[in-house]
Amino acid sequence: MALKLAAAALLLTRSITAAIGSRFASTPLIELQKQTASSPVLTRRDIDPDSLYPAHNLSVPIDHFHNESVYEPHSEGTFNLRYWFDATYYRDGGPVIVLQGGETSGEDRLPYLQKGIVYQLAKATGGLGVILEHRYYGTSFPVPDLSTENLRFLTTEQALADQAYFAQNIVFPGLEDKNLTASNAPYIAYGGSYAGAFVAFLRTQYPEVYWGSIASSGVTKAIYDYWEYYEPIRIYAPQECVTLTQKLVNIMDNIFKNYNNATQPAKQLKALFGLDGLE
Prior knowledge:
Oligomer: single chain
């Protein structure tokens, strides 16, 4: 029976291939390229997004909270917060849809503006799509180095204030005649994972700025020592693999538990993972 199904599938595939071949066999390659190029949707979706969307910067405060001691010494400076936007589908009255880049360079999120969720929402609502980079990622650096002291401004609280400041102050290049700040346009935030939790927090902390948020897989609850994360793997993965992994982890745990970090067994184990210098 299986052999008959495989044979039928092969015949069907050959029929479809022949039909496609007869449709395009007489069409020169250069003509096919012209037909593809004549479709702006195909061209736009397939092109490198870096060439579609120039990067822009908005100057924002390094420190939004001068009354909080955790950020001492405070800073009066500003830094360039990078963003990209697409107004292809924008119609007057439409929303500004801001995707929070999260813990990576904003450039990594450009496909969402080109053909992903931001593109889909902007097209459906007559909106303007934005990718907003998170402070301390990409080129959006408020400090000259990553010393412990300079990491004091790397908090979700400060980054949330960045996104609120953006909505309240942005003037999009080429659209200077339009007031697209939060006081005059509905703002919708989108994010996934950490950025999902981020936009959920954004909606609760700045409800007067953002009309709504879409939090995809938002990790809104921080759990210390979240061992349950691995439970589905332990239960449903191939049990031989699970048992072997547990034994190996137990061996490594015992080496560090029973030997000091400075002893030869611990050093050898760390060296296996390229962690010789780890104390």
